Automatic annotation (TrEMBL):
Transmembrane segments: none annotated. It holds the Pfam family Oxysterol_BP. InterPro entries: OSBP_sf, Oxysterol-bd. It comes from Penelope pileata. It comes from the Eukaryota. GO terms for cellular component: cytosol; Golgi apparatus; membrane. GO terms for molecular function: sterol binding. This is OSBL9 protein. SUPFAM superfamilies: Oxysterol-binding protein-like. Coiled coil: none annotated.
Amino acid sequence: MSIGVHNIGQGCVTCLDYDEHYILTFPNGYGRQVNTLLDISIFHALSILTVPWIELGGECSISCSKTGYNASIVFHTKPFYGGKKHRITAEIFSPNDKKPFCSVEGEWNGVMYAKYSTGENTVFIDTKKMPIIKKKVRKLEDQEDFESRCLWKDVTYNLK
């Protein structure tokens, strides 16, 4: 039992300190709950429901036109039997290169490890140790008509 959301389109993230703009696509989102049916007898069956979880899956990309760097990212869904949740692999490319200079793997909501083309292995990022940084957004009245917060302001207001 699951539900899937296929995210279409792209986003733009601006890194103000470096005046860089990153265009990115989004992974798919899934709400999962496995329903296991155990046959006890011909006349009886026991249904065991697991704890539901949210999962990301599919491929996405990130690119910066200013620097030329780009990344290809795969969010791996949990296999039906065994395996782990929240797995990710990625390859990071220098401008105009076809071969990645860095490969990343791990959990997108935990620790990710990097392996560089030089042979060096290191912790790429530990998301559990990252500080929460308040995002900077323009005031609603300064946004264009189709910027997310402006476009969805009525829905947000009514949900609140």
